[in-house]
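tool_log.txt
---
The assistant was asked to compare two proteins side by side. It first ran the structure predictor on the initial sequence, then on the second. Raw inputs and outputs are pasted verbatim so the downstream comparison step can read them without reformatting.
(1)
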Amino acid sequence: MCKPTIFQKTYQNYINQIENINLSDISEIIGGVILNNEIVIPFFNKYYKISSKGIFNNLGNKADFSEAAILSKYILLSPQKPINDNKLVSYPELKDAGPLTKYFKDNAEGAIAKYFTNNLARLKTAGKKLEGSPCSNIDAAYDLKLKFNPLPKIPIYLLYNDEEKKEAFPAQCVLLFEQSARTYLDEECLAILATLLFKRLKQIAEEDKKQKNS
């Protein structure tokens, strides 16, 4: 008999904890809906069902580890009432971000800047398809400013400047959270959430590129 992997053990541990939670009590707080004893949560514009049976996407497939970890923590860390503090902060400003700041920079902000360098139009298209909306509340000079809603209570603001060859300025990406994000997820999950934002944008861009070349 095969021994359970670390992923399987961790996944089952999350499910066991969720089983002890009254999902109806927190559904409205975290922006979910109860259907057939499951809580349904939009995650990067797709719906996921979470219950003691497991975590599944809209196609009925089991969520991968990153998705399962974030959605589980989103439920398990739910506050007792909605917290709204929309002051924008960078990842390093979060209380316990320190050890993960380099990971966040390399795998989220830096990854977006590197992949989309000199491809501002591609980033705009990918951002639109991921339902990013213009950030009218940010008064700063950037080539692109978009607000994404990967989870109902945790928007991510993407600010991007493309490379300026004449001035020798490399492409730059800044990702901001609302201060209340830390109430709903810990710093580790917020870092993973930001890397998933990059992966979703990259996936959309790659699919568009294949379609144009086919």
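(2)
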Amino acid sequence: MSEAFDNRSTELIQLMMKYQRRIFAYIHTLVPSRSDAEDILQETSLTICEKFKDFEIGSNFYSWACQIAYWKVKAARKKYATAKVVFNQEVMDVIAQTRGQMEEELDHRHHALSRCLKKLNDRDRRMVLTRYESGKNVTAAAHACGRTVQGAYKALNRIRKVLFDCVTFEVSVEQAQ
């Protein structure tokens, strides 16, 4: 019994580590505030842990977890009813459905972006990664790469275009195969 519990716990930890960022991204598409999305992720994670005994290993964990997240968001809507930006239930349902339908495409684009980032020279890659690191801005990226702030803005615009073109090409090649 203890070994079965240990195996089940290990599986839960591995799945949560693999999918936590994606679950957060899903929640954040439904909740405008990052801090509210983080709170809902915590509630969702607790429920996932509590209900994991009901999860069938080998089935789609991400979809299962997103269903839990969806219900957590729906329950939290009462709390957000006084906020300035509140989606009505119909809009929230469409966003959730669209996000689910786009998941495969988003995965392809994410993998393509990883490949395209590797193609950048070290300075440009460091610039982009620093800029989009949590809590960082263009000024931080400029200092990290030895550029002026104005130069960093220009470089980031150029790099974004290069990455966009590269990702578009990579995805089109992947779809053609």
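---
observation on (2): The mean pLDDT is 84. The chain has two domains: 1-86, 103-177.
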